[in-house]
Structures are given as C-alpha cells and as structure tokens.
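[stage:ingest] chain + small molecule (uridine-diphosphate-N-acetylglucosamine)
[stage:ingest] validated
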Amino acid sequence: MSTALVILAAGKGTRMNSDIPKVLHPIAQAPMLVHAMRAGAVLSPERTVIVTGHGSDAVAKVAAAEDDSAQIAMQEEQLGTAHAVAQARDALAGFTGDVVVLYGDTPFLQPDTLERMIAARAKNDLVILGFEAANPARYGRLVMNGDSLERIVEFKEATDQERAITFCNSGLLACDAETLFALIDAVGNDNAAKEFYLTDVVEIARNRGLKVTAVACDEAQTLGVNSRTDLAAADAVFQANARAELLDLGVTLMAPETVYLAADTVIGRDTVIEPNVVFGPGVTVESGATIRAFSHLEGCHVSRGAIVGPYARLRPGAELAENTRIGNFVEVKNAEIAEGAKVNHLSYIGDASVGAASNIGAGTITCNYDGVMKHRTTIGENVFVGSNTMLVAPVTLGDGAMTATGTVVTRDVESDALAVARAKQDNKPGYARKLFDMLKAKKARRDKGA
Ligand code: UD1
Ligand code: MG
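[stage:predict] done
[stage:export] tokens:
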C-alpha cells in the first residue's frame, strides 16, 4: 500500500510572538518541520504535501531543502484542520493509497508509532493517534466504545463528563485518500470556533458504517510546541534523549548536560567529548576522536584519532583526516587537513588544504579574502610553516617546504625551499637604556606639571 504524507503547517503560532513561521523554529538546530518530515520519511511516502499559510515561501524553501519532491499546498485562510487537509487535494490528485496527516509542530513522533498506525489501518477505515494525557487540558477527547472510536469532541464543545476523559487526540490520522476527502467534504463549521474541524471526520465515518479506531502512543511523542517556553522545553527533551543515545552507543560525554547536540550529529564509539562542546548541523565525528572543552563544530567531519580543541572552531567544510591535531583558538573553514597534520595554536585555516604530516605554527593565517573574492591556499606534505606566517592566497607551498617565522608569503614556494620574507633585524647597542632614560625623564616632567 502506498502512502502520502500531509503535514499541516499553516498555523500562525501567535504565542511564539515571532516573525518566523512556527514550524521553522528549530529544535536541536533543525526546523520543527524537518523533524516532522524525517519522522514521516519512515513510511517512504510516495508524495509529501506541506500545507502552508503564514510565511509560506520560507516554509516551502525549508521543505524543498529537506525533500525536493515535497509539494506545497497553500491555505490562504486558516479555517480549521479539515480545511487545511482539503488544500492537499490537488497535490494528491491521482494518488491512491493511505494518507497520513501529521502536524508540523509535533517534532517527537517516533517511526514505530507511524508504522503501528499503518498496521491498524489494514483492519480499519480510519485510524487516529491518541495518548493518555497527564493533563488533558484543551486537547480533543477520544470517545471510545471498546476498540471502536465513536467520535472526537473538541474541548470547547465537550460536556463536563467528556472533559473527564483523559484519552486525547494527537491530531494524527491515517485513512485511504478517497475516503478521507469524501469525509472532509461532509465536515461543516457549525461549532464554537466556527472552524472546519478535522476531528469531525470520525463521527461522520461512524455514521457511514466505517470502522474507526485509535492507536495509542506516549504523550511525549505528541508534544506540541506553541510558545518559546514549549520550544525550550522541547529542545531540552531532545538534548536529553540524544545524549542518552550517544552514551548508549559508547561515546564518552564527560559532562553530558553541557554538550549541545544538533538533530543530525553523528559521533562514533570511544570518542570523548569534554564539557561545553556545541555541535551545529552536519557534524560527523568518527570513533576514537577527542573533542576537548569549549569547542564549536558545524558542517565538518572529524576522523579517527583526531584531537580537537580546547576552544577550537570547526566551520562548514572542515575535513580532518585521521590523527590530526587542531588546538586552542584555531578556526578551520572549508579546508582539508590531511593525516597527521597539526594546527595547534591560534590560527585561521580557511579555503585551504594542508598535506599529511605538515605542521602549521602558532598564529598562522591563510589570508583567503581580498575583500571581494575568496582564494585557496595549498600546502603540501611535510611542510613546516613557521609561527605567524601570513599566507596570502592564492598561494601554494610545495612538499617539504618551510617558511620562516613572521613571513608574509605572497608567491608560491617550491618543494623543499625555505621562504623568508621579513625585515632584517638591526640591534643598536645601548639604545634600550637611552630610550628608557628619556621616557622616564619625560614622565617625571609630566607628573610634576600635573
Ligand atoms: C487540534 C485538534 C485536537 C487535538 C490537538 C492536538 C482539531 C479540530 N483539533 O487542536 O483534537 O487534541 O490538535 O494538538 O483538529 N492548522 C492549519 N490550518 C488551520 C488550522 C490548523 O494548518 O486552518 C495546523 C496548525 O498549524 C497546527 C495543526 O494544524 O500544526 C493543529 O492546529 P491547532 O490550531 O493547533 O489545533 P488545536 O486547537 O490544538
Ligand atoms: Mg494546537
């Protein structure tokens, strides 16, 4: 049976108090929408439709970056969840199979929950995902009759007796496409909110003699985000789960609660992460590496046995081969550091390649930007770059080359050559003493005058 995903993401998210559409607010540095899309991806959907409204262009861009086949359905006015799903009808023209409706602001959904919904669909016409709520608050209530779901009553419409029900609607459902759109056509807006409630499809389906059931999951999976407080709480939950997962996978986190992970961080076994390390998106660290305290990594790859930090910054395109060393206050961007190479102190290596076993001295800078364009620096193998060398790109240092400390390299250096480009030293005997005396006398005159 083929599946299509419809992700509802048109809501304004008023309580976020933001110019950014709610579903684009990040959890672990990935937009909530992306979390929802990744959760839905386990069903290998034939089509994915994102229903957008507020900030549609921005939402469409993020959706396309995650899945370029995702379709966008515009909901001009937010007239309710049934109206939102109805907007996906054109995008699903010709599709036969199950539609799974997800919310874009529910980032914790687990793959097996969706699989259980699909399994339940085999025996039912319509499947709703429910959960036992610790505090049912304003959720829609699921009115069950044995295994059969009779109807969903929205909090606003519920009687006191119905409000006492703790089995609540997550908002997710699975239904055959043709059946779902036929049910939605019958939904009206004669209710307290004057909205077209998707939840009404349950009672309509029952009246038509269809089989409807609810599958249950943990409340944690249905956690929605409506405010910045919810967002922070959701991020904290995500971090706690992700850290626990890494620990189980054999990664050492010296102070787990201080390590900030991204949704896609990959770290290999026996790697040690010291306290206060931040992972941005797109980081892979292989086994047996060490990331020392206060380092910041994003969009980079760290190979086995590499040691990074403390206080290192790896930016997108930093590619560290095995057993490399990136030390304190070193920034690496869009650069390959080959096996065994070392950049241990106070350097910027950008738009560059550093060959195997080369050593980059303290304070070395690749001057990669001329104010208009970026240029590359190519450093061969076994090169020794003296401290405080300025490498004015584009420039190449051949294998085995050396630069003298303080050299400003503006021309290529051939293999095994030494480049020296600095002013000659001139020692003036007795001048230091004379200069001190002169300055002290000057200070004494000034102090007297004051
Ligand atoms: C909905 C359910 C409720 C359930 C709760 C779970 C209905 C009528 N009610 O209520 O039973 O317990 O979710 O969180 O479905 N959206 C659109 N377009 C619209 C309206 C909403 O795209 O016109 C999107 C929102 O962006 C959001 C989702 O649909 O992602 C749910 O909408 P929301 O307004 O939060 O519904 P609730 O009142 O919370
Ligand atoms: Mg809601």
